[in-house]
Design goal:
Length: about 200
């Protein structure tokens, strides 16, 4: 009988020990399961990374919008410059045309007195007075044209210069250096140093 009691008591003790050890093991295993599992932290990390990506996307969108505004401003400025240049070009062309018309009118106006004198010379009787009137008209024209920058080209007796002389004939002339202008058939002229018509001349060989 005592042996049976002792056996039962030992079973009860071992069962009590088992029951007290089981919760401790569960407590010890509980934190390990929560912290040791690699899959438990990854969702948290993904959730923490999402706001950062949203911030970067918003910043990029704002930068794009800012660049679009800058581009629109540059386009507007470029269009304004084109319009201003077109207006300037049109205004300059108008002023140039008006200036050319004004200069032409003033030049022709200055020629009218010489034309008047030539008409009077035609109506005058032939004689010394007629010749004097024509000579005066020629001088008047020369003075007027000289005031506009016209300059006669020296020819007879001058060395031949193909830049200002146009040789239409050549001759053997005694006592004259070769390539010297011996005769002028038509006067040549310059305007402000630029040849507008070379002198037509005869040149010595």
């Amino acid at each position: 009988m005592e042996d049976k009691k002792d056996t039962e008591m030992e079973k009860e003790k071992s069962q009590e020990q088992h029951e007290t050890q089981a919760p401790a093991a569960e407590e010890a295993a509980g934190p390990d399961k929560g912290s040791g599992s690699p899959g438990a932290e990854s969702p948290k990390k993904e959730k923490a990374a999402k706001p950062k990506k949203k911030d970067e996307t918003a910043a990029l969108k704002e930068e794009i919008e800012d660049l679009k505004r800058q581009l629109d401003a540059q386009k507007d400025q470029y269009q304004r410059m084109l319009a201003e240049y077109a207006n300037y070009k049109r205004r300059t062309e108008q002023e140039k045309a008006q200036l050319g018309s004004f200069v032409k009118a003033e030049t022709l106006k200055a020629l009218l007195p010489a034309l008047d004198n030539l008409e009077r010379a035609v109506d005058a009787p032939a004689g010394e007075e007629y010749k004097t009137g024509v000579d005066m008209t020629i001088r008047q024209l020369e003075e007027l044209l000289a005031s506009q920058g016209l300059e006669a080209i020296d020819a007879k007796g001058a060395p031949f210069d193909p830049e200002i002389h146009h040789a239409v004939m050549r001759e053997d002339a005694d006592g004259v250096e070769p390539d010297t202008v011996t005769e002028m058939f038509q006067k040549g002229y310059k305007v402000d140093g630029r040849v507008i018509r070379p002198a037509m001349v005869k040149v010595a060989n």
